[in-house]
Amino acid sequence: MIDGAVIERDLNETADVVVVGTGAGGAVAAAELAEAGQSVIVLEEGGYHAGKDMTGDPLTMFRRLYRAGGLTGTVGNAAIPVPMGACVGGTTTINSGTCYRAPVSVLRDWERLFGLRGFGDGALDEHYADVEKFLGVKPVPEKNLGRAAELFRAGTEKLGYAGAPIPRNEKGCRATGVCAFGCPRDAKMATHVSYVPRAKKAGARVFTRCRAAAVLTDRGRAVGVVARFLGADGRPTGHSLRVLANAVFVAAGAIHTPALLARSGLGGARSNVGRHLRIHPAVRVAATFNEKINGWKGVPQSYNVHHFTEEGIFIQGQFAPPGVEAVSMPFVGRRHKELVENYERLASFGALISDVSSGRVVGGKNGEPMMWYWMRAEDVRKMRRAVAITARIFLAAGAREVYPCVRPFPILRTDAGVAALERARLRASDFEMMAFHPMGTARMGRDPATSAVNPDGEHHAARGLYVADASLFPSSTKVNPQLTIMALSRRVARNFAEKL
Amino acid sequence: MCVMLDHLFPAGGRIPEGASDVALDEKLWRFAAEQGAPLVLAFRALMRFWEHAAPVLCGRFASLSSLSESEREHVIERIAASRISLLRQTVFQLKFLGGLHFYGEPRVAAALGVVPPKVAK
Hints:
The complex is a heterodimer of chains A (500) and B (121). Chain A has 500 residues and is of the alpha/beta class. Chain A is 26% helix and 21% strand. By secondary structure, chain B is mostly helical. Chain B has one domain (2-111). Chain B has helices spanning 2-8, 24-35, 37-57, 69-80, 85-102, 106-111. The A-B interface holds A 51-52, 54-59, 62-63, 68-69, 71, 78-79, 176-178, 184-185, 294, 296, 321-327, 331-334, 336-338, 340-341, 343-344, 407, 427, 429-430, 432 and B 7-10, 12-15, 31, 34-35, 39, 73, 76-77, 80-81, 83, 85, 88-89, 91-92, 95-96, 98-104, 108-109, 112-121.
């Protein structure tokens, strides 16, 4: 790995393929392409950090691993934080390692509405299977579930809902409970410990702290990338890298991929680049029990309720260190602090919805692009239902108080209270939301009028330019997208290599 | 900033420390400086809002720092529970960033009973 921060001159390189990004999309594409015999150069804006650098302290790790220190979010009818990774491994380094295949109904819709032939009939299955095998995807073992998940499971079963331990990409997880701040044991198979080393082994060269500034094009064909080296402080060093290549794979994530394309003159009003942003808005629902839970013990995202997936509601465990978890408790001042004092008895789950609202990625010419997102009434109602279901499960599990992070309902203690929440007229801004899955901003499809890239991931207007990340998704996946990003990226890379 | 943080994270109870005990205001200004000029400016604007505008919005025609402790508490709680999202955000952002630093303090976390994970290999 070549650290851009220490390079003291401009560089010119050539390769068969240049890949932008080392997250779920870029790392998989780089590995597949390098193993297919292509000379590959990979560009990553963030730095490289191994398990020994992961302290588990949110403040330190926000600075080290997250884009803008974790302070990225949407603008619109609700301010929704959307944290993203900015390091080797991208968001796979800071996610919970949750690995789901997209439901067949979603893939069928993609085939029917966007002409992605075979998607409804298992065209992605071999890609999913290969990724799952390599990453060691398996359900969280019973010993790592944690007490919160055990209680939530009891509540789920009592209400007759379907739930299960979550499949994760890990090898030797010791449940340190800090997945979102980088795995200190390198047990989570984020791409910086899986696909990036595999790409390097096959000959790929990786430049870190190297921000792609523009894709170079010549007569409708992508011919390379210009990038700027960044210092350890994230500021440009003044030196640049110019890579000339036969093909460019852009996998900078669903916010920065469209921004890069737009900077390169490959956006525009009719291109669909930057449009159709989906984010899977989520609300944290916490609850206190009479018994001690010690939520920091066990895998934070270990159990999910998939009973409502088809209607676009997905409920998953989560827990974070006090600096992040405690602030979501309601009220301010003494009342807030008194609730936080029950931290040992606190459990927390996330209610996530598959959104039909869509936003846009705009700007980003000289800095961070802006995420514009307007949550529609349909999604507000869905969110209300998702929060209500989560609260009911907690109450069924024996919680004495539930904190749904909904403005008019700081605390729920009874089913009647939940019913009142379900009847309430709420606005998007009444929910304290977060979102972790931006997608859809360079979606694939046959028709250039409704998509940005073709079913092979190649830009409609620039030959040799491929997109290989969550930007490709034509709609919300209804579940965590990492595995689908990887499967799609593998498919795009393999199809490209087969055509050579 | 100090006045606000002392109200958001008061001393006493199971967590004896309050914002002042862990020098929370200094930590937040340092954090803002590390993040860059826009956040420092945003913090300054936020403080001006709290000092001058927030009390007026709650019917108190005086600066926040000149109000009695109970009046300040009233102002902060009213803004925190406001129907207007933008007003609530002025509390939430400070609560979020303050809480990140406050509850991240090892002695505060220890008072909550949290045992940090063993991260050494």
